[in-house]
Automatic annotation (TrEMBL):
Pfam families named in the record: Acetyltransf_1 (PF00583)
Keyword flag Transferase: yes
N-acetyltransferase domain boundaries: 1-88
Organism, as annotated: Staphylococcus hsinchuensis
TM region positions: none
UniProt keyword annotations, A-Z: Acyltransferase, Transferase
InterPro entries noted in UniProt: Acyl_CoA_acyltransferase (IPR016181), GNAT_dom (IPR000182), YpeA/RimI_acetyltransf (IPR050680)
Name of the protein in question: GNAT family N-acetyltransferase
PANTHER family: ACETYLTRANSFERASE
Record keyword Phosphoprotein present: no
Length: 93
C-alpha cells in the first residue's frame, strides 16, 4: 500500500512501536524525543508521523508530545491520521 505520508520538507517517522509489555513506561516518549533530536540535527523544522485511526492511546501520546492532526491517509480498511509537530519551538526553549 502506498500512503501519502511526510512532505519533502519534514522529517517523517515511518514506524514507531513498543511491545505491549513495555507500554506505559515512557519508552514511546523517549523514542519520539530521540527522533525529534535526529530531525533537528538534520536541520528539519517539522516532524511528522502517521497513526492508525483506531490507536487512540498512541494518538494521545503524540498529542501530549505536541503533535497535531493535519489530515488522513490510507485505503480501504487501512486508515491513518497524519500528525505533525513544529520543531522551531524547541530552539526557543
Amino acid at each position: 500500500m502506498n500512503l501519502d505520508e511526510g512532505d519533502l520538507n519534514e522529517y517523517h517517522v515511518s514506524m514507531l512501536a513498543t511491545l505491549e509489555s513495555y507500554r506505559g513506561n515512557g519508552l514511546g516518549q523517549k523514542l519520539l524525543t530521540y527522533a525529534e533530536q535526529l530531525a533537528l540535527n538534520k536541520n528539519f523544522t517539522h516532524i511528522s508521523l502517521t497513526v492508525d485511526v483506531e490507536k487512540v492511546p498512541a494518538q494521545r501520546l503524540y498529542k501530549k508530545q505536541g503533535y497535531q492532526f493535519i489530515g488522513e491517509t490510507g485505503q480501504g480498511d487501512y486508515q491513518y491520521y497524519k500528525m505533525r509537530k513544529s520543531l522551531k519551538l524547541l530552539y526557543l526553549k
